[in-house]
Amino acid sequence: MRYKILGLAKRISIMFLVITGLRCVKNTNFDAPEDACNDKIVANTSLAEVKHLFSESTIQIEEDLIVEGYIISSDHAGNFFGTLHFQDSSVLPSDGLQIEIDLRDAHLIYPSGTRIFVKLKGLFLGKSRSTYKLGGVLNSFGNETVGRLPANMVKEHIVIPCNATTVIEPVLKAIQDLDDRMINTLIKVENVEVIEEQLNLPYAISEEETSRILANCENSRLTLLNSGFSDFHQGILPPGNGDITGVLAKVGAEYALIIRDTKDIDFENDRCKSLVNESSSELIFITELADPDNNNKARFIELYNADDSSFILDGWTLKRYTNDNTEIGSIIDLSGITIEAKSTLVISPDPEEFKKVYGFDADVAAPGNTAANSNGDDNIALVDPFDKLIDLFGVIGEDGSGTNHEFEDGGAFRNLDVSKGNPIFNPDEWTIYNDTGAMETIKLPQNAPEDFSPGER
Asked: For FRET with 155, which of 112, 119, 128, 296 sits at 20 to 30 Å CA-CA?
């Protein structure tokens, strides 16, 4: 199941009707509505005990349970939408949860640092990979999952006590020390920077959830997840090194940080010295792209190492150019990954579904909007540490729909006589299936698992 991060939508104006006529408020910097506080409510369970209620599927909580917590997220700048994140303490928390809510401008009622009590009776509890969620219910093909709690029910379940505002102290952590217990808590990571390949890029592509990569001087990596609807998405990523604060999440097997706004970033120090553990090879190339007609969660991308020796992919990236965009939409950082001699490397955006469908684990989990999760009309580039294009599927700047590089509802398979990468797309090197049969491709949608061969070359 694809990790859905917060809905991530943003409205650009709020209209108020006043006696003198209609006036447009261009931002959300106005006072929160006054409300009577509740000083009688008491918690009777913990976040850890709530998580233990979950077994294998979404449940509705029927007991009169109440938990106490502290809001750590904010939708003020639009990087969060439709979700409140809270943790069990303002200092050194041990657990965090998130609540899906259908409430715009929630920061006006529940600003970051607000102490809250959550009445759990009637709420639904679910889990998406490593993330526990509370909220309403969403029915999809007979399956219940956690959905947004209707706006008119939010105050019934999320109660603010008196003297509720406090300062949240983020927990200081190194990238290599992150673990699942910190998900949905506020952390600070020191001495990190945007990787070289992404300098001068914006925080996010407009209207797209966008992954950017942070690294420390030991080359440990952490995803920075930004919304293309946020107020700051067009701003340029900061070039220096320093500290960053955000809510910890998880996308696939990788940890991700979500900032509340750019004030959470303090990159005023000099960047790390370059690490020299990088090399290039034409013998690493793309061999299979999958967009199964019967299951879009079973998508993947496969690389192959044609060399007689194993190869460390430090500094290598897979870049996705969405549709006809000439700007990079997302990047999979392959640093630290070894691809064995004469072997494949399979990358999945949904490792749980991949194993369920194909019967074995993918080698790498990637964020959901990357090259591993293409819907068949994107262009994908394999790039070495020196920014040299090693292999290319598709034509950058050309939407794949109706072309000789469309694999929508199908797949693209590298012919077995190809033994190295090609920086210029050559359709003669591929056998491509889709649902249109355009430009000498094969009109035959492909189904998983029977029509694909991940891990084989």
From this structure: 128
